[in-house]
Amino acid sequence: MQSTHRIWPRIAMASGATLAVMGLLTACTAGTPDSGGAAEPAADTTVEDNAATGDTITIGFSGPAADHGWLGAINTAAIAEAEKYSDVELVVAEGTNDANLQISQVETFINDKVDAIVLLPTDGAALTDVAIKAMDAGIPVINVDREFSSTFAARTTVLGDNYGMGVSAGTYICEQLDGEKDAVVAEIAGIDSLPLTQERSKGFADALDDCGLDVSNRVAADFTVQGGEAAASQLLSAAPKIDAIWNHDDDQGVGVLAAIDAAGRDEFFMVGGAGSANVMRSIQADDTVLKATVIYPSTQAADGIALARLIVQEKGMSDLVESSVPRKIQLYAPVVTKENVEVYLPSAFES
């Protein structure tokens, strides 16, 4: 699909940024590597402590090209989060889907001695070595969405829950079909070769199995409007009767709904995925077959910015008894319906 967002050009970094000399992981975080020299965060951190202005830090941020509404929202939210803090200077690298270019961006951050790096890698495995290089230089890396292939490559990882998305979608469909054991459930997946698609499909299948259903018809698209329309047209031609559809991605869902309208089909209900604003408005209006969507948070990089600040300033998460920022945080995948859409619409992204 054509994205409605653009990635910002690389912002020149202010000179004189100080490298925060800190341990990569604290000794009290179990199961993580110890690089030595770790500074302990203050015990009993409060909300007021975390909000208080500290020493100014520089955070480097790099993510893929915003060729998808969700990715555009990732970047927008990260920049907006940094702007909340007078003690954070954010350096934004140009968005790219070229792993080699992104590696060079991280190397520039290392050479410029930023205090932390928030990185949504275009390819987690390909960016692992340079992330380890940053960690070895004493620069904490916050890994977002696509995991590195080594534990040593990140201080903290912020993830969505792809398996949980499938579980949430399947559970909602089970509840709506309420014991209809012969119901026809269809699935329009994303790119089948991606682990995230495989995890979503597995979660969906597991949830359906729990209520005695399975996926009767399944096609895969490519997270684009055009791909969604083509895949949905194929599905509708192959399945003369459907009771429920889960479409993995709301951006490709624009095409899916176009195909449904063109086919004149309305005997089923549909659940979306990711949580776009246009889908939520449709759910709110209740004027299509689309009745729900499952959130895949576009706040992950913004959370990464907030966590990077806490880590460098040796603060913790005030709502946890543990005084250190956790090594891994996985965000929830709630179902958005007409009843709760007003809660989620303000933070939704535009497809």
TrEMBL record:
Could you cite one Gene Ontology molecular function of this protein? Answer: carbohydrate binding
Q: Give the SUPFAM superfamilies listed for this entry.
A: Periplasmic binding protein-like I
Name the principal localization, coarsely classed: other
Q: Which UniProt keywords apply?
A: Signal
Keyword Nucleus included in the entry's annotation: no
Q: Give the highest taxon in the source lineage.
A: Bacteria
- Tell me yes or no: is Signal among this UniProt entry's keywords: yes
Question: Which GO cellular component term is one of those annotated?
Answer: cell envelope
Periplasmic binding protein domain span: 59-314
The stretch of residues making up the signal peptide is 1-30
Q: Kindly list the residue ranges recorded as spanning the membrane.
A: none
The subcellular location is: Cell envelope
Q: Which family does it belong to?
A: Belongs to the bacterial solute-binding protein 2 family.
Query: What is the name of the protein in this document?
Result: Ribose transport system substrate-binding protein
Which lineage is the organism of this entry classified under, starting from the top rank? Answer: Bacteria, Bacillati, Actinomycetota, Actinomycetes, Micrococcales
